[in-house]
Design a protein that fits this description.
By secondary structure, this protein is α+β, with helices and mostly antiparallel strands. The protein has three domains: 2-56 and 79-143 and 345-390, Major capsid protein gp5 fold, CATH 3.30.2400; 159-250 and 394-401, no CATH class; 259-339, no CATH class. Helices cover 23% and strands 33% of the residues. It has nine helices and 21 strands. The strands form four sheets. Strands 6, 7, 8, 9, 10, 11, 12, 15, 17 and 21 form a ten-stranded mixed sheet that branches. Strands 1, 2, 5, 18, 19 and 20 form a six-stranded mixed sheet that branches. Helix 7 crosses helix 8. The radius of gyration is 24 Å and the shape is globular. The protein starts with a strand and ends with a strand.
Length: 403
């Protein structure tokens, strides 16, 4: 059985859970749109929180045939994938004195509760994009890792410049590249996932097409009593992924493109440099595959191009290379690059996963009726994860220059 957050609140177990679920929906267009497959049985004390599936890699083909002859077999290929469900959230503490001082009684709890909801939402969004179980065994793999090197990774080998969309010609060229990117999917995407800078550029590109609208979300009201609305382009909802929990760093970063070019042209020897403080060594005449393997061992998820040079396109801000021996590598960089993701939500495409019969969102409010000066409250989302059933149900547009 599949469920959305809007449907999950109908089965809430407490009076305040529907309010909390609605706050999650307001904070994230992505989380509000996602469908969760209730498929994992948490038996054995949570030891089996794993969702296994097959990811379709190629599409079915069809052909003509001559009479009295057979079709050439063409099988659809898929790969087995598994994902472990993750639990995320946080706790807060409120002194009982604050619970008895007029309007502050509920204000302190409400404020902390809303902040934890916001942080948990962004933590989930961060996992959806940047999740990597090699770095955090308690999380799950995200789209950046799943789409790296896939047939729906677009623009990885060059920079697409949207930094100055100040003419009609530039906006039309950008719209063409957007259309080419979206055509990689196996249907109309549900969401465009980006940061505020990238979505601002898309807004500028599509505003003049007549397909850009803002639509209210049924049943969701903001702090001013007005309906929460979502931006859409041709039925595709914009989802600003925001900032990482507890920081001002963007979930989908604006980063640098770093090029490392070997200067040795003859002889033998190794090239040694530091990437994010880790020493990387490879042969002076290494090809792109060797660069890719060496760099991925330190910082996976980027794109390397070139024959005897490396262009790091898909790495976050802060990625730095330092020459350690002074004889092997020269470095140059271009800044202001980011990515945009597109997903088609559906149980045959990109969707969420949760447990059978479980509650997607749970809340524990401070209990001021018992002894103890400081009381704890908690907000929790999960167990949850995401699944990409078909490679062509998601795509990423790499290396867009937005500033």
């Amino acid at each position: 059985m599949a469920v959305t957050l809007a449907e999950a609140k109908l089965n809430a177990q407490t009076d305040y859970d529907p309010m909390v679920i609605d706050e999650f929906r307001k904070e994230s267009a992505m989380l509000d749109s996602l469908v969760f497959d209730q498929a994992v049985n948490p038996s054995g004390g949570g030891a089996t929180l794993t969702y296994g599936y097959r990811r379709q890699a190629t599409q079915a083909t069809a052909d003509t045939r001559a009479i009295n002859s057979e079709y050439t077999p063409g099988n659809v290929t898929s790969t087995p994938v598994s994902v472990n469900l993750a639990v995320m959230g946080g706790s807060f503490e409120v002194d009982r004195v604050l619970s008895t001082v007029g309007p502050a009684a509920s204000g302190a709890v409400t404020y902390n509760l809303n902040q934890k909801i916001k942080a948990t939402t962004t933590r989930f969004s961060d996992e959806v994009i940047n999740g990597n179980v090699a770095a955090d065994a308690n999380g799950f793999d995200g789209l950046n890792k799943a789409l790296f090197g896939s047939s729906t990774e677009y623009g990885a080998s060059a920079v697409t410049d949207w930094s100055a969309l100040d003419t009609t010609e530039k906006r039309l060229a950008a719209l063409d590249s957007m259309d080419s990117f979206l055509s990689l999917l196996d249907g109309t995407p549900t969401l465009l996932l980006g940061n505020s800078k990238a979505l601002g550029k898309i807004r500028s590109i599509v505003r003049g097409t007549g397909m850009y609208v803002r639509n209210p979300v049924d049943g969701l009201l903001g702090a001013n009593g007005r309906p929460i609305s979502r931006e859409e382009y041709g039925g595709i909802v914009f989802a600003d992924m925001g900032e990482k929990a507890g920081s001002t760093n963007l979930i989908i970063p604006v980063r640098k493109q770093l090029s490392l070019v070997p200067t040795v042209t003859a002889g033998s020897g190794n090239i040694t440099f530091k990437l994010n403080g880790v020493t990387v060594t490879l042969a002076y005449n290494a090809n792109a595959a060797a660069w890719q393997a060496a760099i991925d061992a330190v910082l996976p998820g980027g794109t390397v191009s070139g024959s005897t040079s490396a262009t790091l396109v898909a790495y976050p801000v802060g990625t730095v290379a330092t020459i350690t021996d002074g004889v092997g590598v020269s470095a140059r960089s271009a800044s202001g690059l980011t990515d945009i993701y597109a997903v088609r939500i559906g149980l045959d495409g990109f969707h969420g996963v949760t447990t059978i019969g479980g509650q997607l969102v749970q809340t524990w409010l401070p209990d001021f009726s018992t002894a103890g000066a400081v009381k704890k409250g908690e907000v929790e989302l999960g167990p949850v994860a995401v699944a990409l059933k078909a490679t062509k149900a998601a795509a990423v547009f790499r290396a867009i220059k937005v500033q």
